Amino acid sequence: LFPYTTLFRSDNRGGAKLAGDALGKKLGANAKVVIVEGNPGADNANERRMGFEDSVSQYKLNLLDSRTAHWETEEANQVFSTMLTAHPDIQGVMAANDSMAIGVVKALQSAGRKDIVVVGFDNIPAVGPMIKDGRMLASVDQFGQEMAANSIDLALKVIAGGPKLTGWVKTPIKLVSGE
Asked: Torsion over CA of 4, 18, 85 and 74, rounded to 10 degrees?
């Protein structure tokens, strides 16, 4: 029924571009930005970095630094604190997941900085209040809880005689912001 080449997942590159575009629109050309990345070599980490770099190019942002925090909150706090010391003129941050975005927000609070715009990825419940009160600009929702259900629904349609699925079946993504 399904060729082994069918893949159900969100577009990590496209999602990161949504987040990067929000940052680019908010900050404008020549804004100084950084990215806090996921695990080196992981497909989703690479795709999220590339998506953000697409926005950096399109909006003519100045990418000052890119470092990994291995998807972890406390490591992101430490990594971003180091980045902020090295580049005190940072204006925006793309955290490749919301756990790391939370670490970035904690680092900003510790530094007493409210002038740096933060975007994340995953739209976990913990960032909702941060988006609402302005500590974060936005996050990308990839509807993780619905991803499996949507995949099963598509599989049932194929089993029932619907269209054959091959290649990449992209699941929905959406930018969630307070604006």
From this structure: -50
Angle at 79 between CA 76 and CA 80, to 5 degrees: 80
Q: Distance between CA atoms of 83 and 101, rounded to whole angstroms?
A: 14
125: number of Cβ within 10 Å: 7
Q: Are 135 and 95 in contact (CB under 8 A)?
A: no
| DSSP 8-state secondary structure symbol assigned to residue 91 | -
Using DSSP, state whether 139 is helix, strand or coil: strand
Strands 92-95 and 117-121: parallel
* 94-148 pLDDT, tens digit each: 999 999 999 999 999 999 999 999 999 999 999 999 999 999 999 999 877 777 7
pTM of the model: 0.87
Sheet containing 174-177, strands listed edge to edge, beginning at the edge strand earlier in sequence: 62-68, 32-37, 92-95, 117-121, 138-141, 174-177
